[in-house]
Amino acid sequence: MKKTVNSLLTAVLLVIFLAAGFVIYQTNTASDEPPSILGYKTFIVLTGSMRPTLEPGDLVISKTPDQEESIGQGDVITYKNDQGVVATHRVIDVLTHDGQTVFQTQGDANNSPDNYVITMDQIYGSQITHIPKFGYVLNYAGSTAGIITLIVLPLIYLFFSEIVTKNRKKNKAAGKRGEEPSPTDTSL
């Protein structure tokens, strides 16, 4: 039973370690384009402009749109406007401006549409789903305290756990041969 619990704990720590590594990679890329995996991107909601649909701290998972036709009225998109601000708002109208398809957006909690339109090349993704409050977890994971908690401490635990396990096996083998246990035996 103890071996099963230890194996399960090791597997959980490994998953946390890999997830934390991915988060750190995502938050530290130097590219102007948000990182993506197979066309999926994540964004953390920072304001209440999309309440009640999205709350601050929610994690939005978006898919890079294939073409203009894949985005329509009512879709929630994440984009970078002309001022360089990244926002996640709902498409309230699809228009044609100078022969180009543009999207009028508005936050669900806002009284009026955004004072700009968005072109296809400004769109990072169209919302697939969201995970409430998980953005706070990712922000923490990318912080110094998060790195220590989610990477350094689990690595230290795994290192010492392995030493203790090897030492116990060595002492069991020595006990079967009638030898004295090692003075570093922690099972006494």
UniProtKB/TrEMBL annotation:
Q: Which InterPro entries match?
A: LexA/Signal_pep-like_sf, Peptidase_S26, Peptidase_S26B
Q: Does the keyword Transmembrane apply?
A: yes
Query: Which segments does the entry list as coiled coil?
Result: none
Q: What is its main location?
A: membrane
Enzyme class, first EC level, given as a word: hydrolase
The GO terms describing molecular function are: serine-type endopeptidase activity; signal peptidase activity
GO CC terms on record? membrane
Could you confirm whether the keyword Transmembrane helix appears in this record? yes
Record keywords: Membrane, Transmembrane, Transmembrane helix
**Biological process terms in GO annotation:** signal peptide processing
The protein's Enzyme Commission number? 3.4.21.89
- The residue ranges crossing the membrane are 7-25, 140-160
**Where does the UniProt annotation locate this protein?**
Membrane
Name the record gives this protein:
Signal peptidase I
